[in-house]
Design brief:
The N and C termini lie far apart (140 Å). The longest helix is centred in the N-terminal third of the chain and has 46 residues. The radius of gyration is 31 Å and the shape is globular. About 10% of the residues have low confidence. Strands 4-5-6-7-8-9 form a 6-stranded parallel β-sheet. It is 44% helix and 16% strand. The protein has 323 residues and is α/β, with parallel strands linked by helices. Helix 7 links the parallel strand 6 and strand 7.
Length: 323
Amino acid sequence: MIHYSKIFLISLLFIAFTGCKEYTKLKTGTRRVSSELSLLKKSGSFIKNMGANANNADSNKVVSAPIKQKSILNQYDYLYDWLNGKNATLKADNFQWDTSRNTYIIIDSGSRRLTISFFSYAIDPETGSYSNPDHINQWRNIAMVDSAHAHRKRALLTVSCHGERQSNRFLENQLAWKVLADSVSSLLREKQADGVELDFRGFSESKRGTFVNFVQDFRERMEKQMVDKLFYLAISLPPDNQNQIFDISEIQVHADAMVIRGYDLHELNVDKGHAAISPLRVENNDGYSLESIVTSYLSAGIDSSKTILALPLYGAQWKGASK
């Protein structure tokens, strides 16, 4: 005989047990959601404030961002960028690993970093490759780049082309432009260097526009190949920009720094006798000085915020008779 009362009681107990399990699961789920919302809220506040003191007075503006911050950024990068709005400094993809401090940092785009450049990659104007293998071998083995990065400084490779014939030939040879970019980008990646200083001297006035085109082309090629880090480009400028051979207003659009060579002015002041290598001023403005060349470039429209005046770390001795 079937005891329906027992079946009903068992069914009732099963329903109650199942309901209890579902209730427990729902309660646990609710707690988890609440916990995640709380964590997200805390993370949002934490994320928003990461790098909040980026605008400190330190000339090397860096902001510590421990590994746990990077972990949160990996999960909530969209939230970080949204919370910080249009602040270009505080962006999730601005974090870089600092090997010297074993932590992530943000580099403020408005900060000033000291820069050192290795001299040099001498261009073979016929090919775009280098013509000085001994120097390139030194670059591959030098500790300069690692040392610069350990002290949070920028390390560049100077790319040089000196002399009218060599410079003109290279600027006429666009096939060599590609070879140069391929070769230099490979050398930068080997050392994890930050960029290039272009040091061209002596090209003809007729190549004024061609040089601008080369600088633009070089930057675009390098940025395509240096995808893992920001590419930094500096342009070396002569103390005397006769006939405006360097088109300042056009060149500086593609450059991060314009480096005026404030040395060897005695070669320009040769008719003045024993002249100083890097005089601050000259009497009656008769000749070249740091004051006159900076004034000249400012008049030509150079962007002072990205201009560097390079000074010599050497001197000269002159022989002469006392009066």
